[in-house]
Design goal:
Blueprint: H1 5-16, E1 21-25, E2 30-33, H2 34-50, E3 58-61, H3 67-79, E4 82-85, H4 92-102, E5 106-109, E6 112-115, E7 132-138, E8 146-151, H5 152-165, E9 172-174, H6 182-192, E10 197-199, H7 202-205, H8 208-217, E11 222-225, H9 227-240, E12 249-252, H10 261-270, E13 274-279, E14 288-291, E15 307-308, E16 313-317, E17 329-335, E18 342-343, H11 347-353, E19 354-356, E20 363-373, E21 379-384, E22 389-391, E23 394-396, H12 398-406, E24 411-420, E25 426-434, H13 440-448, E26 459-462, H14 476-480, H15 495-507, H16 525-539, H17 545-550, H18 554-561, E27 573-581, E28 588-592, H19 603-608, E29 614-622, H20 631-645, E30 651-656, H21 658-672, E31 677-683, H22 702-715, H23 721-724, H24 729-734, H25 744-763, E32 773-778, H26 785-801, E33 806-811, H27 821-844
Parallel strand pairs: 1-10, 3-4, 3-5, 9-10, 11-12, 12-13, 25-26, 28-29, 28-30, 30-31, 31-32, 32-33
Antiparallel strand pairs: 1-2, 5-6, 7-8, 8-18, 13-14, 14-15, 16-17, 17-20, 19-20, 20-21, 22-23, 24-25, 27-29
């Protein structure tokens, strides 16, 4: 009974055109006709049947790329078994691990078909299209290889599509590694359509000139190549002037395709040669395809990955498994007959990646690939969700930087990645293989004219040769182990130039003067975090964020950094007051820090405000407050610092979230000391009821959440910081976004500060306050009648506590939204109006 469409298609070719060349093995010069090929396949298949091999039984194949491997593949498919290629050159420990994971009792090697310990495989099960056709191993995150088991249904749909998509009878080079899934397209689609498979020896695969000569001399018509091999082939062709004019069809897969000048010139010289970009994980093989259209001169530098092929449903979803609108980035999930059964003998790993479809269509595979789908259904690859490169909040596609690097005439190959340096700061590193001496400065100068400043690598590491995996891909794990070159610390007199260069890289322009404010020329809280992170690394001592708030011009920052010792208050815990926005010094509005102790979240509010006041921030400097410190004690520290800046009232105070609760206590202490507090603004803050949950502050769940987060980080030695700071999680805990460049030390200190402040708030018992209070209430939180009732109850509880003038001012947005770009201008407008009214009332009195 026929079990494999692919095998039956090859056998049919033997019946109709048996004398045609099926296989040419360059290693030994042998050839096989279709009749000879099928004869050898059937002999091997008979031995497999005698050993008990059938459906659901893996066969380990320890052969390199050769005619014997082609025979073994077809023989295993003929009996309905699972073809499991293993590189015989693998280290012994890996061979042992793969064999153990497979549980294969039958092996095909140079010695022929052998059974483990002389055992015969158990009786075969009836054939089903769901039976595994092959098992290919991929690297596992735990170091244990994972075997992807692809059913016959998936393999057959792929080969049917490949046959329909291409021309029949093409001479095709067998280039890919036997453990790479593209091998099945090379071998089966060629033999199923009457083509000749030319098997390249290893030395040809690794030598671009030998590869070019092989294509010319063997009249190769079709190639399947990863991008790196295609780029090297194109460069060699362009450099030598040798054009392999027999080529009709090139398929690239396995790596991000870049259309470099060499590739454009190569395909222009070829004329009508077709270039396809194939995309898909091993767990689904091929899922999308794009044929690059028209003139190579018009091809985009970063081509799309195309549209789904037959048997594939692609979904672009968010983290709640909801469809992402066209044009937005989401994770790619794949459904359909393309899916693997899962990971061989690894049910837990299978359950993690192969998930139930909310649409009731069975299973989906979570690829981990981030894509964007355009209106015409074309998919564009963006990056990986798990190792995506991000610099100061910008997504950086490694391929784009690598494309710029290899454009240098002496750069042979390049790769980029993120590396952690001082204090967990992540920097972009370029790994460069060059012909002859090439200094890091030459590399940086080259790419500086091609890329935005945030894409410029901070380090350049020279490599003699680019490490590669067995499938020919760049071994990025090996690159990450290479030592980084030391930085040269700039002398103090060069600090202004160093800061200027850094601002240009961070801001993306040089349109500022030495006395321009960083935040007035395009800087924001994310970029500020990156500036101080890089400065800490370059000058070799920690720099706090508050330094940039207080010294926000190049000249002021250079003066601040020119002092001896750390630019930090890390050995003390105290209040620190910094200028957020200049204004008339006669009146100052003090904004009190939220949970994490930092003030950058107020920068947008201050920028939007038109009030004729100077806006200062009261932040927490240095070590986090000791856990168990009361809110009154934290407030007293701030009051002491406040009165050194402004000894007498009247004071204007405001704070968002926890900052409003702390401002309430600061106002209490100031009035108790006889000072006048003319203005107290609570920006969706309430010292009695948590405005988010509607629970009493003493019962807020946020303290428990922070305790859990800190404990989890302790257990994992900080490994969870990256996950915690992504998306909305950090904003909801701390109130402000965080830069990807923020050091782990800074993030942990902010968490410890938040934890201590939240504990203090939970234990706080506010006293009645007789001064004027303005409550700026987030009206966007009222998504239901119950929410409106909850907010009314919170206001009533606060009104009962405030015995003086009490004003409620609705502002659009939810608790966090009132401080963000979409609503902060309205919040600032209402704050300005309240300050003006309070100033008028003060003048009248």
């Amino acid at each position: 009974m026929a079990v494999s469409f692919a095998f039956e298609a090859v056998r049919e070719r033997a019946r109709t055109d048996g004398d045609a060349c099926a296989v040419e093995d360059m290693a030994d010069g042998s050839t096989l006709s279709y009749s000879a090929l099928i004869s050898r396949v059937e002999e091997t298949a008979d031995r497999l049947r005698s050993a008990g091999v059938g459906p659901e039984q893996p066969v380990a194949v320890l052969l390199g790329r050769s005619a014997e491997t082609v025979v073994a593949m077809l023989a295993v498919l003929a009996v309905g078994g699972a073809y499991c290629p293993i590189d015989p050159a693998s280290p012994p420990a890996r061979l042992e691990a793969l064999a153990r994971r497979l549980g294969a009792l039958v092996t095909i090697s140079r010695e022929g078909v052998t059974s483990s310990g002389g055992q015969k495989a158990p009786a075969a099960k009836p054939f089903s299209p769901a039976a595994p056709a092959y098992v290919l191993h991929t690297s596992g995150s735990t170091g244990v290889p994972k075997g992807v088991a692809m059913p016959y249904r998936g393999l057959d749909r792929l080969i049917r599509w490949q046959i329909a998509d291409g021309e029949p009878g093409l001479r095709t080079l067998h280039f890919t590694a036997t453990s790479f899934d593209v091998t099945f397209q090379e071998v089966l689609s060629t033999l199923a359509t009457g083509g000749c498979l030319v098997i390249a020896p290893e030395e040809t695969r690794r030598d671009s000139r030998a590869l070019l000569d092989t294509i010319v001399n063997r009249r190769i018509q079709r190639l399947f190549l990863p991008y790196v091999a295609l780029q090297l082939l194109a460069e060699t062709s362009v450099r030598t002037g040798v054009v392999p004019d027999s080529l009709e069809h090139v398929v690239t897969a396995g790596e991000r395709l870049l259309i470099t000048p060499a590739i454009r010139d190569f395909f222009t010289a070829l004329g009508d040669c077709r270039l396809d970009n194939h995309f898909g994980p091993t767990e689904a093989h091929l899922v999308t395809s794009l044929t690059l259209p028209g003139d190579p001169a018009a091809w985009p530098a970063l081509p799309a990955i195309g549209t789904p092929v037959d048997g594939v449903v692609c979904r672009v979803l968010d983290d709640r498994l909801q469809d992402v609108p066209h044009g937005e980035v989401g994770e790619l999930y794949v459904e359909g007959d393309c899916l693997a059964r899962g990971y061989h003998r690894a049910p837990a790993a299978t359950a993690e990646r192969f998930v139930a479809s909310p649409w009731g269509s069975g299973r989906m595979y979570r690829t981990g690939d981030l894509v964007r789908r355009s209106d015409d259904g074309t998919h564009h690859f963006v990056g990986r969700s798990d190792d995506q490169l991000k610099i100061r909040g910008f997504r950086v596609e490694p391929g784009e930087v690598e494309h710029a690097l290899v454009g240098h005439p002496r750069v042979v190959a390049a790769a980029v990645g993120l590396r952690e340096v001082l204090g967990g700061i992540s920097v972009l590193v370029a790994y460069v293989q060059a012909e002859g001496p090439l200094s890091p400065r030459e590399v940086i100068d080259h790419v500086r004219g091609l890329l935005p400043e945030y894409m410029i690598p901070s380090r350049v590491v020279a490599v003699e040769s680019m490490p590669r995996t067995t499938s020919g891909k760049i071994d990025r794990a090996a690159l990450a182990e290479l030592p980084l070159p030391e930085l040269t610390v700039e002398p103090a007199e060069d600090l202004p130039r160093l800061i200027t260069d850094l601002w240009v890289r961070v801001l993306g322009h040089d349109d500022f003067a030495q006395d321009d404010d960083f935040f007035e020329v395009g800087g924001d809280s994310l970029l500020a975090t990156w500036v101080v992170a890089e400065l800490s690394q370059v000058i070799g001592r920690p720099v706090e964020l508050s330094v940039l708030l207080d010294a926000s011009t190049v000249e002021d920052l250079a003066a601040a950094l020119g002092t001896d010792g750390p630019v930090t208050a890390a050995e003390r815990h105290s209040s620190q007051i910094v200028t957020i926005r200049q204004g008339p010094s006669a009146r100052s509005l003090y904004l009190v820090h939220p949970l994490g102790g930092e003030l950058l979240g107020y920068r947008e509010l201050a920028r939007a405000s038109q009030a004729p006041v100077r806006i200062l921030g009261i932040g927490w400097a240095g070590k986090p407050p000791a856990f168990g410190l009361s809110l009154s004690e934290i407030a007293a520290t701030h009051v002491e610092q406040l009165r050194t800046i402004q000894p007498d009232g009247p004071y204007l105070l405001a704070g968002w979230s926890f900052g409003g609760v702390l401002a309430y206590e600061i106002a209490q202490q100031l009035t108790a000391a006889g000072a006048a507090v003319d203005f107290l603004g609570l920006l969706d803050a309430n010292p009695v009821i948590d405005p988010i949950t509607g629970l009493p502050i003493a019962r807020t769940p946020f303290l428990g959440l922070l305790e859990e987060v800190v404990a989890r980080l302790d257990d994992r030695a900080g490994a969870g910081l990256e996950e915690l700071t992504s998306g909305e999680t950090w904003i909801q805990l701390m109130g402000t976004p965080v830069s990807e460049g923020a050091s782990s030390d800074y993030l942990r200190a902010a968490l410890d500060t938040a934890r201590a402040c939240m504990a203090a708030a939970a234990a706080y018992r506010p006293r009645p306050y007789a001064g004027p209070v303005h409550l700026f209430q987030a009206s966007g939180s009222q998504s239901s009648g119950a929410d409106a009732v909850r907010q009314a109850e919170a206001v009533a509880a606060l009104r009962e506590l405030c015995t003086g003038p009490f004003t409620v001012i609705p502002v659009p947005g939810d608790h966090w939204g009132i401080m963000r770009a979409e609503h902060v201008s309205r919040t600032a407008k209402e704050l300005d109006a309240a300050l003006e009214r309070q100033g008028s009332a003060h003048n009248e009195s």
